[in-house]
Write a structure and sequence with these properties.
two-stranded antiparallel ribbon; mainly alpha; 5 strands; three-stranded mixed sheet; 6 helices; elongated
């Protein structure tokens, strides 16, 4: 009887050990990474190893180019003028014109106030001073109308025998030139033959 009990105990113990081993093997198999996971990992590593550094540089360069604002420019003949250059030229030209007018005005006022001069000379000075005021008004009105018609940044200077019109342009068509001449003649009272249209030149500023 004892032999039978001992044999059964050994069989049960052996069976328990076999079940435990089978369970351990099954657990180990489920925890191991699959071949697909290994393949995916290897593919990711290959992608990193074979990345071209120039690709990263290109991305950085593209980002920098997008973030750097470009200054608006206008092409004048063979030169490229920025808005700052155009504004500086116009301001300088108008200041020079105003200085010329100011000197003329001062000279005429000195004649008018000079007690040693005769009435004829003073009357002539007054007439010239009135003429100067009209010239200044006409120059401003012409520039304003040119700007309204799309010819901004203009400088108009009325002389004794001519009217100089300096514009910011690349080329003028016949129609555009005719329109400019029409504006200038109507606002200044000069003839077309007296109008001199010039292109803005930074070198002159």
């Amino acid at each position: 009887m004892k032999k039978i009990f001992k044999s059964n105990q050994i069989a049960i113990t052996s069976l328990a050990i076999m079940i435990a081993v089978a369970g351990y093997l099954n657990f180990t198999k489920s925890e191991a990474p699959s071949a697909v996971s290994y393949d995916a990992a290897e593919e990711s590593l290959d992608t990193i190893d074979t990345m071209d550094i120039s690709d990263g540089d290109a991305l950085i360069s593209e980002k920098v180019d997008d973030e750097i604002p470009t200054e608006e420019t206008e092409t004048i003949g063979d030169a490229v003028l920025t808005q700052a250059q155009v504004g500086e030229y116009v301001a300088g030209a108008k200041m020079e014109r105003e200085q010329t007018h100011s000197k003329t005005r001062d000279s005429l006022n000195e004649i008018i106030e000079n007690e040693t001069l005769g009435d004829a000379e003073k009357e002539e000075a007054v007439a010239k001073l009135t003429r100067l005021a009209e010239v200044i008004e006409k120059e401003a009105a012409t520039e304003q109308l040119l700007d309204t018609k799309g010819y901004g940044d203009s400088v108009v200077s009325i002389g004794d025998d001519s009217v100089d019109v300096v514009l910011n342009y690349d080329e003028l068509s016949q129609a555009e030139r005719a329109q400019i001449e029409d504006i200038v003649t109507r606002k200044t009272g000069c003839s077309v033959s007296q109008i001199i249209i010039s292109r803005m030149d930074v070198a002159e500023s």
